[in-house]
Design brief:
mainly alpha; 2 strands
Length: 307
Amino acid sequence: MTTRLARAATLLLLLVTAVWGSTFFLIRDLVATVPPADFLAVRFAIAALVMGAVFRRQVLALSRREVRTGAVLGALYGVAQLLQTVGLQHTDASVSGFVTGTYVVLTPLLGALLLRERVDAVTWGAVLLTTAGLAVLSLRGLSLGYGEGVTLASAVLYAGHIVALGRWSRPSAAVGLASVQAAVIALVCAVAAVPGGLTLPSGGGQWASMLYMALVAGAAALWAQTWAQAHLTATRAAIVMAMEPVFAALFAVLLGGESATGRLLLGGALVLSSMYLVELRGLLARRRRAGATAAEDPPVEALHHDV
């Protein structure tokens, strides 16, 4: 029964990861007419309302400290979302998926800086692979493209979010914390949208994309991830979720009209290899000792960059 549940959880998490990957080209198309802050404010307002209703009991069970923690994490995450969405205006969805995925490699580096954890040789090897992959994907001559640079900044914030969540949260409060964060993200983005006025999606197609990203890729995916992570180890879940940039590139090529260039394939392969190298490093660390740190084995609910 346990093996059957683990297989079902793996398949469900893979489906969720594919859903997350599908949002990159949809966001890119939507922010062509709706400003990033406006899009995010509406998206997370819808998600927060639904999550607040569905997970009301879990939200009410949070302590005051956890609510404050959720508010701080939501503010950090909201800024990361704004940067990532702005970056999508200036780079391909396929490239954005891989650059965003570098948070997997950046997490142990920030753990070393903020929590004074040792950076081992495997992590430095992953950093080199990531740097090479980003160079192939993003360099324009000797400079980093604006879209890729902004997206990389968002990946740094996502990594910081993972480290902070791993330090201050507990698994039983994950859903409640996510609901609080969704509400704070909506507030942060609404404040950013105020100067230019709120622009809403127009037409059935744009609203369908908005609802898909708020409800399917947001609230429903969170529920599915929460169930799946109860039946999987953090390492196995992280390896599955490392497929997100691959799905992002696949959907961008198949449905978003982008081209599968040699540059995309090579740079993406280097970045993806670095992500799996970090996960392998975490697995080896856990075999050497029982208690892994947040950077070596971040909580599964913290690993994805999207609510």
